[in-house]
From TrEMBL:
Broad class of enzyme this protein falls into: transferase
Upper classification of the organism: Bacteria, Bacillati, Actinomycetota, Actinomycetes, Micrococcales
Superkingdom: Bacteria
Catalytic activity entry: (R)-4'-phosphopantetheine + ATP + H(+) = 3'-dephospho-CoA + diphosphate
EC number(s) on file: 2.7.7.3
Protein name according to UniProt: Phosphopantetheine adenylyltransferase
Length: 166
């Protein structure tokens, strides 16, 4: 049984749905690594270093167990990170059938490459409709994203929605 899990994502920005999955993973695994990964297919709002800081602050503010570590990874495959830290499980939040369709091939490849299993976790239904891209769009148009993001993210976005692009 794996005692270490990795919860990867772009987290641009981290949402309450992400925190829900992180918190529940922290109750299942002895150690959880939240890994901010660079996705070259996405147009980033926040620099990776800022995303890491915001996740750390949100995890701390919500009282999630102390077994959560936040890191970034941009060199090589995610399973390389998993191997480096001894993780045998990747935890992915799944909101819809589209997410399952997208994530399944990656889960199979990760298992084949490094014997790292993927565990799909459903978010709380109150967060199932929220994505980082939706938050970016609403925030960019001046809408209220406070119901969808941790307070620290909301405050950051209120002060600086035009951050540099990676």
């Amino acid at each position: 049984m794996s005692r270490i899990a990795v919860v990867p994502g772009s987290f641009d920005p981290v949402t309450l749905g992400h925190l829900d999955v992180i918190q529940r993973a922290a109750t299942v695994f002895e150690e959880v690594h939240v890994v901010v990964v660079h996705n070259p297919d996405k147009h980033a709002l926040l620099p990776i270093s800022r995303r890491v800081e915001l996740i750390e602050q949100a995890v701390s503010a919500t009282g999630i167990r102390g077994n959560v570590r936040v890191a970034s990874w941009s060199v090589g495959l995610l399973v390389d990170y998993c191997t480096d830290v001894g993780a045998k499980v990747i935890v992915k939040g799944i909101r819809s059938q589209a997410d399952v369709t997208y994530e399944t091939p990656m889960a199979i490849v990760n298992r084949n490459l490094a014997r790292v299993e993927t565990m799909f976790m459903l978010p709380d239904p109150s967060h199932a409709h929220v994505s980082s891209s939706l938050v970016r769009q609403v925030a960019g148009l001046g809408g209220d994203v406070s119901p969808y993001v941790p307070r620290v993210v909301y405050e950051y976005l209120q002060g600086d929605t035009d951050t540099s692009i990676e």
